[in-house]
Amino acid sequence: MSEPRWLSPAEQRAWRTHLAVHKLLMHRLDRELHAHSLSLNDYEILVNLSESPGRRMRMSELADVTIQSRSRLSHQISRMEAKGLVVREDCRDDRRGTYAVLTDEGWETIQRVAPHHVRGVREHFVDRLTDDQLDALVSAYTPIIEHLKKLR
Fold first, then answer.
1. How confident is the model over 62-100, as pLDDT tens digits?
2. CB 3.0–4.6 Å: which of 11, 41, 131, 149 could bond 7 by disulfide?
3. What single DSSP character describes residue 37?
4. Sign of dihedral through CA atoms 141, 143, 149, 151?
5. Interatomic CA distance for residues 37 and 48, integer angstroms
6. Is the distance from CB of 100 to CB of 56 less than 8 angstroms?
7. The whole model's pTM is what?
8. Closest CA relative to residue 59, chosen from 19, 94, 12
9. DSSP states of the chain as a string?
């Protein structure tokens, strides 16, 4: 086994800065959503369903786009069903498949909460950076995203 390529001080600062931004930002946005009785995971599911044709997605596809195990997503959907935000429906063309479907209550919730969430994203992230910094961030993260998607 070869010796690891340890991070240089600059690489270590960049890595730890990334971790701190991610953790702090997700924590803040999650706390702000709790004021609306949602978690960040709930919100992500509501967004994906609201943007899908018929406001529905196969559970397997929803698990993939939210990067959750099927088991974890199933538990999350059960909690959201109890709140009246989503329902499950069987797939007509595939007896093994199940859809997660946004309810009217879920649709009303995402419409009501989205402006608050966007305000938080803007306040805590977007407005802290210049347009050039935002472009640089996209440029820096895109190859990492592409690399990691290939590994899934």
1. 999 999 999 999 999 999 999 999 999 998 877 778 999
2. 11
3. T
4. negative
5. 18
6. yes
7. 0.90
8. 94
9. -PPP-PPPHHHHHHHHHHHHHHHHHHHHHHHHHHTTT--HHHHHHHHHHHTSGGGEEEHHHHHHHTT--HHHHHHHHHHHHHTTSEEEEE-SS-TT-EEEEE-HHHHHHHHHHHHHHHHHHHHHTGGGS-HHHHHHHHHHHHHHHHHHHHH-
Joined tokens for residue 105: 């209550």
* pLDDT tens digits along 10-68: 999 999 999 999 999 999 999 999 999 999 999 999 999 999 999 999 999 999 999 99
Q: Which two tokens stand for residue 36?
A: 């609306």
Question: What single-letter amino acid sits at 127?
Answer: D
Helix runs in 68-103, H state only: 70-82
* Residue where the block lists tokens 């909690």: 79
| 9's tokens | 């001080």
| Strand extents, DSSP E, the chain | 56-58, 86-90, 98-102
